[in-house]
Amino acid sequence: MESKVTPWEVKGNIDYDKLIKEFGVSAIDDKILQRIKKHTKELHPFLRRKIFFAHRDLNFILDQYEKGNKFFLYTGRAPSGPVHIGHLVPWLFTKWLQDKFDVELYFQFPDEEKYLFKDNLGWEDSQKYLQENMLDVIALGFDPKKTKFIIDTQHANLLYPEAIKVAKRITFSTVKAAFGMSNETNIGSIFYTAMQAVPAFLPSVLKKKEIPCLIPHAIDQDPHFRVSRDVIPKLGHYKPASIQCRFLPGLRGLEEDGKMSSSEAATAIYTTDDAKTIKNKINKHAFSGGKDTVEEHRKLGGNPEIDVSYQWLMFFEEDDKKLEKIYKEYTSGKLLSGELKALLIEKLTAFLLEHQKKRKDAAKNISKFIL
Amino acid sequence: MESKVTPWEVKGNIDYDKLIKEFGVSAIDDKILQRIKKHTKELHPFLRRKIFFAHRDLNFILDQYEKGNKFFLYTGRAPSGPVHIGHLVPWLFTKWLQDKFDVELYFQFPDEEKYLFKDNLGWEDSQKYLQENMLDVIALGFDPKKTKFIIDTQHANLLYPEAIKVAKRITFSTVKAAFGMSNETNIGSIFYTAMQAVPAFLPSVLKKKEIPCLIPHAIDQDPHFRVSRDVIPKLGHYKPASIQCRFLPGLRGLEEDGKMSSSEAATAIYTTDDAKTIKNKINKHAFSGGKDTVEEHRKLGGNPEIDVSYQWLMFFEEDDKKLEKIYKEYTSGKLLSGELKALLIEKLTAFLLEHQKKRKDAAKNISKFIL
Q: What is the arithmetic mean of pLDDT over A14-29?
């Protein structure tokens, strides 16, 4: 399947090295990892494993940080369905950055985005998912003193007056090229990127002093920031920096589902799936890199590069040694596909049951997070 | 000069009969005037003189009114410069409608519109004119108990969540055709018409009951409502009705300035012009329909159809008998151009000095009007 990566559609088996060139981002290399480590002491597994694989202007952020000028973090979630474990990836990393650098986070919920882009998503649905999705973010343990939720339709008084300043400097030609829009695109969708630009400088406006911005996000959102990075300095603010992750693949594997999709329940694990559902989905659907028979597998070993269970463990098994052991035993044939799946099920179930406990608790704390 | 009428550009000598056909509005005829008069007892000079010359669905508004279902009024002003006497025309009529029908008025100040459409209008200018322009509206005597000002960037929390519902249903093709936009148009301008649509149904949203809407406006704004009238019923609201006026011509006359323009100081009388300035502008610039010499004028008479002073008196001299007398004496040659100008100067100066007094008083009342 030919791959495609836009903010509204990701399909196929994605070549991330090619994306680096196409999008014009910089690869995360050992040099920058060492520079980060100077401040964080240890590196998050998403960095060690190049799950966060690219960036824009991260050196500028570190320059400023080293001069005592702290940055703020900005990321977000467009409500359109239940949260799956793939969504958590950039947020988990954002939480780590918040803790390690002790910085503020502005978390945008653009509750109009998917409503505008999806014909079949009604306004009430969008608002229902907004409430649900906030619980998942809170459950990850963000510090409410340092974390502000921005909800586009509830904070339009703050966002719209700044969005028009961005919008004045972006033509239809530009969004047409960046997002593949056409004459049949609705005018809300055309305008939307201006609303996504605002949180990258809103704290500077609110605090009346310029604060650098670092945006951790999945690579598909890069076109928004590619456009807004050209505009934001014209408004007198720092050009926002960003750090990009690749996608958690869907259950059917990299070839079919380069990115997990909410809209296909059989390929995604939702944060609210119970233990039985997690087990069933993985056992039934997780694409295996194992051989067809036990004999063959013992002899030739499995292929972790295409095995969804192994790929997911790269995201969720934090212990490098354990992961290495799994790799060796799987490739050598000692570990069978079913056994590998069992390891993933155990890991993911423990993580999600804990998440669900915190998620239940989160409802009463929503108001603490809203800007 | 070829004429052109869009919300952002009006030029040339406008053929209003042709506009009725082009825009697809209905002419104000004697039948509908009689129907209005049943309720208002008398007709405003702007109706008697067909200055308000066209409408959409005014019969629906009167049907509803007669059933006891009152409408609300919606009009507006996009701040971009000082208010001139041409701007007052639809507002004076709106005030009359408010008084006669005892209805609420929602007055929109889209403080982003001209900022988005004019390259050379900065944000601070737009905000300065917003404050200035509100004074002119208040000075006309609107009842603060029945009049609500909506300022787009200050009421974005109310407007934006509704604007996206409108925007989802309007494509770029539609705005391209309606407003003559191109690929080089900025995305804020493309979105803007959705913000102008909202006040036409916002009271129904706020009051949770459907209220018919009547929009008095100058004919150049019709493309906005032509587009939004298709969309608003899809959101479950009444299709807004409208009533359109022609423009007060600029000082250089109908041929040159079919519509008075703020940006050309020598062709406009501002509401803040002092008595001396009014006198000088009219004496110096007002295009005359009189003859070249007094002798010729006495013999052949002047032409009121092209005479700016007479045209303006049609807007500002409420007394039909006085106006008729002026018409007769001017066409017969009894009244000289200078004398006609003097009559206009007297009328307009009295009106504006009174306006300026009220305008001074208005500053302390702004907050009473803000929604």
A: 95
For residue B257, what pLDDT band results from cuts at 50, 70 and 90?
A: confident
Nearest to A283 by CA among A298, A266, A297: A266
Of B155, B175, B188, the CB nearest to A194: B188
pTM above 0.90, yes or no: yes
pLDDT at A264 over 80: no
B30-40 helix and B58-66 helix, angle to the nearest 10 degrees? 30
3-state secondary structure of A357: helix
Quick one: pLDDT at residue B85? 97
Residue/partner pairs of B62-70 with CB below 8 Å, 24 or more apart = B62/B35, B62/B36, B64/B212, B65/B39, B65/B101, B69/B211, B69/B212, B70/B101, B70/B102, B70/B103, B70/B211, B70/B212
Q: How confident is the model at residue B166 (pLDDT cuts 50, 70, 90)?
A: very high
CB contacts of A205 in chain B (<8 Å) are: none
A173, B184: Cβ pair inside 8 Å? yes
Q: Which domain holds residue A336?
A: 266-360
For residues B190 and A186, give the distance between their C-alpha atoms in angstroms, rounded to a whole number.
10
Chain A positions contacting chain B at CB under 8 Å are 112, 115-116, 123, 152-157, 159-161, 163-173, 175-176, 181-191, 193-194
Q: Nearest residue of A to residue B181 by CA position? A: A172
Residues of A in contact with B168 (CB under 8 A): 115-116, 186, 188-189
Query: Which of B152, B158, B168, B171 is best to mutate for the A interface (most A CBs within 10 A)?
Result: B168
Closest CB to A194: pick one of B154, B168, B187: B187
How many distinct structural domains can be found in chain A?
2
> What CATH number is associated with residue A328?
1.10.240.10
CA distance A1 to chain B (A): 31
φ/ψ of A6, rounded to 5, equals -130, 165
Look at B172 and A185 and tell me if their CB atoms are within 8 Å: yes
Are A170 and A201 in a shared domain? yes
Instruction: Provide the CATH number for the domain around residue B95.
Output: 3.40.50.620
Mean pLDDT of chain A: 96
Q: What is the pLDDT of residues B169-189, one digit of tens each?
A: 999 999 999 999 999 999 999
> Are B246 and B106 found together in one domain?
yes
Q: What is the dihedral of CA A7, A10, A14, A20, to 10 degrees?
A: -10
Q: How far is A263 from chain B (nearest CA, A)?
A: 21
Inter-chain residue contact B163 with A116, CB threshold 8 Å: no
Domain boundary among B217, B251, B285: B251
Report if residue B273 sits inside a domain: yes
Whether A345 maps to a domain, the answer reads: yes
Task: Give per-residue burial for A329-351: e unless 16+ CB within 10 Å, then b.
Answer: bbbebebbbeebbbbbbebbbee
Among A137-151, A354-368, B6-20, the range scoring the smallest mean pLDDT is: B6-20
* Whole-number Å distance between alpha carbons of A14 and A4: 8
Classify residue A257: in a domain, yes or no.
no
Question: In one letter, which amino acid is A355?
Answer: H
Among residues A219, A251, A283, the one where a domain terminates is A251
